[in-house]
Amino acid sequence: MTHIDPTRDAFELFKGLDRDQPIEMLNLIRLRDQAAYPDGRQATGLDAYKAYGRESGPVFARVGGKIIWRGKPQLTLIGPSEEAWHLAFIAAYPGAGAFLEMVTDPHYQTKAVPHRQAGVADSRLIRHAPLPVGDMFG
Q1: Order of strands, sheet of 66-71, starting from the edge strand that comes earlier in the sequence
Q2: Secondary structure (3-state) at 15
Q3: Which residues pair with 26 in a beta bridge?
């Protein structure tokens, strides 16, 4: 089973949480070798995801989103080995309302999302409330 778009139930739960506090969204992305565009156009999954970034970037910036960390996963040391990821990043938003504004924006929905859907084979998107950074794990 793959996960590319949120389920209606998960999206309703997300909308029910506090919308005014800053949030950080952990993104784990596994790309398709070849993008799966409905119109049959040819591109790699990475190229499709880059197109998603170009189209979503202005909306992301307008709502106050920022990438605060990016990494290239190399190995899953603890967890299912089949959950190997190509990209990982954390996107910070001034609040959940900003994230909701982005994902409901008409340009985002019609111009960006189709590239994400074509390029992504599987993903995880996990909402976090920021905590103070320190030298302790707990």
Answers
A1: 66-71, 87-93, 23-31, 120-128
A2: helix
A3: 90, 126
Retrieve residue 105's tokens. Answer: 């924006």
Give 51-116 as a DSSP string: HHHHHHHHHHHHTT-EEEEEE-----SSS-TT---SEEEEEEES-HHHHHHHHH-HHIIIIIHHHH
State how far the Cα of 42 lies from the Cα of 118, in Å rounded to an integer: 10
Strand, helix or coil for residue 122: strand
Q: Answer yes or no: are the C-beta atoms of 98 and 65 closer than 8 Å.
A: yes
Give the predicted TM-score (pTM) of the model: 0.92
Q: Which residue has the tokens 């290239």?
A: 72
| pLDDT at residue 137 in the model | 82
Q: So what's the pLDDT on residue 81?
A: 86
SS3 119: helix
Say how far apart CA 131 and CA 29 lie, in whole Å.
24
Q: How many Å apart are CA 53 and CA 48, to the nearest integer?
A: 9
Q: Is 3 helix (H, G, I), strand (E, B) or coil?
A: coil
